[in-house]
Design goal:
Structural class: alpha/beta
Shape: globular
CATH architecture of the largest domain: 2-Layer Sandwich
Helix content: 25-40%
Number of strands: 13
Radius of gyration: 17 Å
CATH superfamily of the largest domain: ATPase, nucleotide binding domain
Largest sheet: 5 strands, mixed
Strand order of the largest sheet: 3-2-1-4-8
């Protein structure tokens, strides 16, 4: 079964052609600055991957989702009540929050595989949060909304002081994660590519009494796109 998974982020859109086992082909473009270009770029991106017939399109996007409609995206301000089904009416279209898509890829295929309780974090334009237990991703609506401190996070992130950023995140994320008692915390997103940042973040979590093991996402840049494609699994 060939499926296209799409990761819609604040700075880039990535699409991957998935055959049920692996990514066959991938493409990435910058996120456009307006709604018309956004739709045109999505159509062109999918067309570039449809050399073979595909059975569906799975989408992971930051923000609040309802069915195939992205009601609001904190990092793409021109998106309001955007229905992806209208773009591809002849195909099956499924939509999920991007952090849940990322968590699905890591829980089923990646660094969280085989674990009972997995918390997933993406640290990039915003902070994505998701939780999985016993092989299933919990649909926690509160995690579709940005945290109140997200703009403060962005200001600290942009100063490029990794230790200060790790301490900031440790203090704010620890209380959020502790009720779920995760065995593993899987981390993705562009910020973790900073040298030494994962080690600093683990130390910051331990200082806040979070004992779960931190693991770098194994799906790398395709995590959200693969998790979106896995909406068609099973």
């Amino acid at each position: 079964m060939l499926v296209i998974g799409i990761d819609i982020g604040g700075s880039k859109i990535r699409a991957a052609l998935w055959n049920g086992e692996r990514v066959i082909r991938g493409r990435e473009v910058p996120t456009p600055k307006n709604k018309n270009d956004f739709q045109r770029r999505l159509v062109a991106l999918v067309s570039s991957l449809r050399r073979h017939e595909v059975e569906g399109i799975g989408i992971g996007a930051a923000g609040i989702v309802k069915g195939t409609v992205l009601l609001f995206s904190p990092n793409i301000p021109y998106i309001k009540n955007f229905d992806f089904r209208r773009i591809w009416p002849s195909l099956q279209v499924r939509l999920d929050n991007d952090a849940r898509a990322f968590a699905r890829a890591e829980l089923l295929r990646g660094a969280g595989r085989g674990k009972q309780r997995v918390f997933a974090l993406t640290i990039g334009t915003g902070i994505g949060r998701a939780y999985g237990k016993n092989g299933k991703i919990a649909r926690l609506k509160r995690f579709e909304y940005p945290e109140r401190w997200e703009k403060a996070y962005q200001a600290v992130r942009d100063r490029r002081d990794n230790r200060r950023l790790a301490e900031f995140l440790g203090k704010r994320l620890a209380p959020l994660m502790q009720p779920y008692r995760p065995e593993v915390i899987v981390i993705g997103g562009g910020v973790i590519r900073r040298r030494g940042f994962l080690r600093l973040l683990e130390a910051a979590f331990r200082s806040q009494s979070v004992r779960a093991r931190l693991k770098r996402a194994s799906s790398r840049k395709n995590g959200v796109a693969v998790g979106a494609a896995l909406l068609f699994a099973g």
